[in-house]
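Re: weekly structure request thread

Next one in the queue (953 aa):
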Amino acid sequence: MSPLLAGRQTELVLLTDAFKDAGQGSTRTVLVSGEAGVGKTRLIREFLDRLPSGARSLTGACLDQSDAGLPYGPFRSMLRDLEREYGGAGIAALIGDPSRNELARLLPALGATPSADDAALAKARMFEAFRSLIEAICAGGTCVLVIEDAHWADRATQDLLTYLVATLADFPLLILVSFRTEEAQTANQLRRILTELSRLVQVICIDLAGLTQAEVAQQLNGILGEPASPEVAAAVHRVSEGVPLFTEALIGPDGSVRTTLPESLRGLLLRMVEDLPAETQQLLKATAVGGTAVEHELLTQVTGQETPELTATIGPAVTAKVLLGAGDGYAFRHGLIRDAIVAGLLPGETIELHRRYAEVLTATALDDSRTWKSAAIARHWLAAREPARAFDAAWSACRSKDEQIGVDEELQMLEMVLDLWNRVDKPSDKAGASRLDVLELAAGAACWACESARGLVLVEEAFKELTEQPAPERSAELLQERAIMRRMMIVPGEVDDLQEGIRLAGQTSTLRAELLGQLSRALIVRGRHDEARPLGVELTDLADRLPSAGTRLESQITSAALAVCDGGDPQLAFAGTLDDAQAYGCGDHEIVAYVCLLRALCSRGQHPVAIDRGRAALELAVDLGRTRYAGPVIANQLVNSLVAMGRWDEADKVIDGALLMRPPLIERLKLLVWSGIVAVGRGDFSTATRVVRELQPPAGLDADDGSYRLGRMRFLIELAAAEGRPDDVAGLASLLPAVIPNTDPGDAWPAVMAAALAVENLAGCERIREELQLTAAALRRLGPLENAYADTVSASLLSPPSNDAVERWLAAAQSWLDLEQPYSRAQTLVRAAASLAAAEERQAAKPLLIEASQVARDLSARPLSDRIATVARRARISLGVNDDSVPRAPFGLTERECEVLRLLVAGLSNRDIAEALTISPKTAGVHISNILRKLDVPTRAAAASAAHRHHLL
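Done, posted below.
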């Protein structure tokens, strides 16, 4: 279970307000409803933990038992607790002996039960005695009466609850009643009572919904003890639909998502079904085999029931909220309920139901030939163990021109055809195509679907077929696809494949043009501009000879990219290309042009333009159905600009969104690098550590592509420097010069600057600084951004520190100001201030520190704030206790309070914190009180939650 309560802040406020109203002498009742596992008990416990001193709570739960079970269960439990606390004599002192004896009907230990001939009168006296006891308890302070699991309440409990709510109107009393929505719906008496109670003025209803994806991520952070990746959070939210209990059950101890339901969870889900009539349970089996949602008309045909009969049979499932109305049919309230039902089917039941669905769908396919129906038919025939019919339906689905099928489903259907190829008679005749044809189609679908691992296997299978029937053009096309997928997987050979593809492709073909453009871009990214230029010349000549819009655009894109490499303005270079791609209706070429433009804009520091263009490019990728293929590539460039301009919160949102696109491996790793860079800047080392684990180099990492490796090294260097690991900084920085060759300067400069800043004052790193100076001197400087990098590196690597250090740092700071990059400017300002302070120019240093500290606060950049504070302290520069420019963490936390908060989040007690920081437990307690006050939270758990939420660690 997560130690932190995820979400539910609105509900906690409602409960707190109700408690305050009750404290003013106005009784309040709150009905907390929700499905099983949604967190009713957790919410109530969290609320009770936050009650102020002096408040009293009594809790009792209804038990899952038959009507013959012990009545008044929750009230007996409350009495038992009070008897332990006060004893029989104490209770008598509160309400008198006669009333105490009346309560002995509920708890014999309280005394002798009075005899009564009139059962109704005895019941009334007992109710009055219990009411008197609650009144007496309330006299000592506000009381909270909690009755949990009221959906299991027996009739007697319901009666007493109704009596208390109706008669205790003007007391400092809050009554909390929790119940499961789906089970209360089936209990007519309870439903009637709850409806009546909800009409009373003093009754408040809280219906708990599932958590949002962000709240599920918070819950996972608490369970795992570290931030969960956005992909894991999204996957868990998708399956659990935000139900906290399901979330806990779906996460393994290593943070992975379970692929099968735990037995405990399956039993809970099936409990909802087992209480339904037998005929309804049978109908649910048929519905579950049909999918998460099934049309009413289809269900009637599969089951053979007419509409009136089916409606009557399925009604209890809808009433119990196992099923919900969805359009023209029904959908399971939770996909997990469907999974649990399907898992419990016998093999014979499964086969027969799939057969019925396949037969019905096949019979209606003539009237509705949509591709999705063919795909569904294929799956049903396969599950019904009819391979020949599944083969026909799958081939029909992937060959249809119906645009409702996406590349993911097309790939699934093609792979089904291949899997069944040797299980059917004369497959080539049935398909009207060879196995090689199908393999080529599947490889292409895998490429567009970004399923590179599967696609590479398909390509190799296709090449085996081609050894028996050589076809150079077909081989060239497969090489092109393999090159794309190798790049996605960071597998060596992208350039080699493209070069071989060009050799095999026809001298005058659109395929050759595509290969030339692709190879040119691959070489440019690697900094091999001279090799790309002759390809651009050939492509221009080919465009003149081929009347193809695609070839013309390939030529324009390559020419524009090469022009930027030679110092041309990116916007001017690509303006015509984007216009032409849009005019020709060539969406894929427009996306390629956008990606090249964004990369060029980032390399020149034109980030405001890059952000606008990047958002437009993302919208285009979505509109064209290329979200997974192109979205993450565009997002990486967009994040580059957002991070540079200090818009870190926006960058986080783009990163999280792009990771949910299921990006190819290379783009996922780059997104994680950016996530890590932002985390280091904020001092969020737990997130940064998780990123490090996820960035372990894949086997066969393509050493020829340095763009990712440089980003990764920049991140690791910045992390090691922020965590104070000088040996790791030196080791990483020493490796950097060897990675620079075969990389574009736009990728190299940020890594060189990170290394230079990190080794700036490290002892024993003279050789590393010399190598970095040589590396920087060899890098291209075509514009203001590269000049700013060069100025910063030059100032960092001055050895020994010279008199012109201040001028160099200030020149670099001015360059970053001109480029609108606040974080880089602040990094240079604080160093300029340190140089001024060393020269006894404290007054000149002060405004630089003030400006840098403002940037650090705006970005929540704790390591930068700490550096500013250190410079000010060492230079004895007093910025003033009440001066807003004093460097501090968000919420006004001091350096020591940040240290205490970090240990508190780690789960240490006050005594453990005191020992770790060499302070007294009392002082540690004072620090924690100050932290709670500044964060405006009531508990240590809430402080830990706030620390994660606001990136304070």
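Residues 94 and 680 are 61 Å apart (CA to CA). Confidence is low (pLDDT under 50) at residues 881-887.
Next request, please.
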